TrEMBL record, chain A:
Protein source organism: Kaistia terrae
Designated name of the protein: Pirin family protein
Database matches in PANTHER family: QUERCETIN 2,3-DIOXYGENASE (PTHR43212:SF3)
The organism's place on the tree of life at top rank: Bacteria
Pfam family, one: Pirin
Family, per entry: Belongs to the pirin family.
Domain Pirin N-terminal: 60-136
Domain Quercetin 2,3-dioxygenase C-terminal cupin: 168-247
Automatic annotation (TrEMBL), chain B:
Residue ranges constituting the Rubredoxin-like domain according to the UniProt record: 6-57
Protein family membership: Belongs to the rubredoxin family.
Gene3D superfamilies listed in its UniProt record: 2.20.28.10
Cofactor(s) needed for function: Fe(3+)
InterPro entries registered for this protein in UniProt: Rubredoxin-like_dom (IPR024934), Rubredoxin_dom (IPR024935), Rubredoxin_ET (IPR050526), Rubredoxin_Fe_BS (IPR018527)
Alphabetically ordered keywords of this record: Electron transport, Iron, Metal-binding, Transport
Entry-linked SUPFAM superfamilies: Rubredoxin-like
Protein name: Rubredoxin
Lineage of origin: Bacteria, Pseudomonadati, Pseudomonadota, Alphaproteobacteria, Hyphomicrobiales
Stored Pfam families: Rubredoxin
Organism: Kaistia terrae
Amino acid sequence: MSQFIIRNEERGHDLIKSDGSRSSYIAGHPDGFVTRASSFDFHEYQAGRPGFGPIRVFGDEVFHGAGCGYNMHPHHNFVICAFVFSGELTHINTAGGGMVDRLSAGDYYVFSAGSGGKHSELSVTPEDMHAIYLWLLPEQLYLPPSYHRAHFDFRRRRNEIVQLVGDGDNTLPIPQDLRVSRLIADKGQNFPYALRTLSHGIYVFVREGRINCNGVELGYRDSMGLSDLATVSIDILDDDSDVLLVETILIDETTIKVWESEHAGD
Amino acid sequence: MANETFKRLLCLGCGFSYDEALGLPEHGLAPGTRWKDVPDDWVCPDCGTPKHMFEMIVIGYAPGGADLAVTA
């Protein structure tokens, strides 16, 4: 078994204002700003672990102020998932024939940029918008772009691990061997998670509450990655704990292995 | 060196890919241009991310994908 732990404060914390040259990137000039806590090394914003398997971004973001977000910008290849927890996310996307989607708490999408598309993500209501973004490498380059969205019923699906993304029943498809699940649960419950194979790993992120994950206590916005093991055991230590679980095949890890060897013993 | 496999690299800012075999003729990089021969001050044509923030990848194309990549 191998594992790594990323505490809340160890993530890359950034505040990106819509000013100067950034205002073409960040919407909501002059007073809009995005706060972003990155679990993995993203752009120039963090010097941490580059990723986990095909995952390159796990960004915990808040759009502050009506009109704030990201202006229309292009993507290729990356598969981008967003999970919305509060506020409302207006997502304008050129994929397929083009669309405008509005997502609120519990809604989530999987956008596979494939051969190319542009999108803009905005919070147009007065409340701050909180979402977690997951970016991963696809299993093939230049796939036809696709967009799927669904809703997680957080009032009814409690005290069970609910799969949201990846192969499974009523889940959103994704062009990678990866599954995202969410667990909202109360103190005293235990949840085992069996990994598909020993070639898969799991990234466990505590959005709210407190858990014990295979002997490691994780609190608010703490996370850990585990690999080379068959089952993960999650004990819930606080009521209303909210946990995201990302199980992934461990490929495309060359960059990550180099980083690990350079930081061995840190 | 001439027989070395062509590499593919992905922009970590936006997912734009550079394929040594294909080059980017519309951006002045002929097919076969090695990554090491791409100027150090070159940036992603889509999002401006600098060259050193591209990652080498070993991922195949979807059917028809290589044709699309030439004109990306």
